[in-house]
Amino acid sequence: MALIVVALVVLLLAAGGGVWYLFREPPIPEPEPAAEELAAALQAGKPADFPLTMETSASPDEQYAQVFEQLVAAVGEDAGTVTVKSVTPLKEGDDGTATATATFAWTWPVAAKTAWEYETVAQLTYPGATDGEAGTWEAAWETGLLVPGLEPGERLAVERTEPARGEIVTTSGETLVGLTPVHHVGIDKTRPGWDTAAAKLGNVFDFDRATTDDIAARVESAGAKAFVEVITIRENDPEYDFDAAMAIDGVVGIPDELPLARERDFAEPLLGSVGEATAEIVEDSKGKIKPGDTVGLSGLQAAYDEQLRGVPGLAVTIEPTEGGEGREAFTIEKKDGEPVSVTLDLETQQRAEAALADIDKLASAIVAIKPSTGEVLAVASGPGSEGYNTATLGQYPPGSTFKIATSLAMLRSGTTPDTTLPCTATIDVEGREFQNVPGYPQSAMGDAVPFRTVFANSCNTAFISQHSAISQQQLHDAAASLGLGVDAEAFGAAATFGDVPAEAAGTEHAASMIGQGQVLATPLAMATVAASVSAGHTVSPWLVEPSGEEAAETPSGDLTADEAATLRDLMGGVVREGSATALQDVPGIVGAKTGTAQFGDGNKAHVWMLAIADDLAAVVFIEEGELGSTTAGPVMHKFLTGN
Known about the structure:
The chain is of the alpha+beta class.
């Protein structure tokens, strides 16, 4: 009987323990996950997605939107971040409740390299379990959770201050691109006469019919109070009759300043243009550039846009509920853009552009380099290039100007200026016939013509006769010694330096001997060849002055002074007796080389001329012409002499 009683007591105790376990309050959840959820809700701009305790009927989401409206517009909807910095250990109450404090770190990327960072604090409470189920952490809602010290009804105001754009200047201090007074000329639909203004403006500015009709259509479709810009013109631009335009009813001119070159077309393909940021530029900037910002759109203006653009100033203030002076929350002082210095010489560039001015239907270019320093003095692309930077980016077969590189390879293989070579009317390589240019002088032909005469008159067949003795790799290496096919890392702008394949066989290799086949060069690359010959070492050209700790590139080619001296002598023969005798009256002339590269059906040719005069190496390129001597030669003469 006693055993039964004991067993019964044990069973009751066990059952009682199970009942106690079943009705025990669930444990208090850790506050850290709740703090993370609140941070996510704040970052999303939806604080009401988290359980909040309220002392007002105002909507937390609406308050958030009002407070941050201008800031979000300034930095982007997805720019701000909110993270949990810390959560204090929870404090348990006697009735199953608990409290904790969460500190949040806010980051707003208000500028390219600057963020507004601050911290706010939220009081978290745990109300306890309900019906045996764990409760949910809640946060006490107050506007100070958004910005420290923010009172109900207050909001943030953001004011952006635009920096002055940096100038593009020469290394000697002359301004090439700077702020220039302009007028935005357009039609104001709030003014009488706007409906007939397009036709009258077209007459004053000599627009064609299609342009005038397009302006009229844009004006017609614009809003009732719209200003439709038609053209931006420089102040006192003689090409446009601004006063006559202003006399037209409905036409207005809004004064402004824009970063423009000193002359309308001055080095435009190189320097580039400035305008309102496109949607693509805004998107690619990842918040650095806002809609309406002025940015570089092409050329150096685009390549150095960040340096030139500077950093906008930004003032974030807390605006009080009922007027009064705002309280400063965060400020960035604007930083004006830094200038970009280039090696262009104003007078040399203007001479180059004047020499190309009449070539309006074909791509053309002149590049000039100062051999002693590698400074690029002129980078001009003619009007026929239609805005493309032919001078540094246009790749074409260099024709006989490449014979400078071929000659270097031959000199390295033992040929001397007095070595005789066969200069015949034609030469056959694996079934392909090569010949000299039309009009090649009979006096410079024969079975044993001195190499200096062959070079001076540019005998194709003599050079091709050596294709078995000179490998394609040797051609490649010789070209590289002259700076052709080797990128100049310190050039400072978009540029291509050509391509000379290291492998080619048969007729392709034979064509390479005279600068055709797969050999390509830009005017800049061939100017570098001439500069290397002049300097007596491989020249690495540079255009943009290095900034900060950057240093100019040290030439690393293997051209020797003796090799360059021989090449200068050969180029001198071109002026004394060959295809560039028209340059004999150029002051300081040292030497030259002409080039003609057939293309298409063989009846068309790219034409080139290289020249060295004193401490100047230059190249003229024209997309199509008769011969280098007859088409490019006169342009080179005009450039070197100025007349």
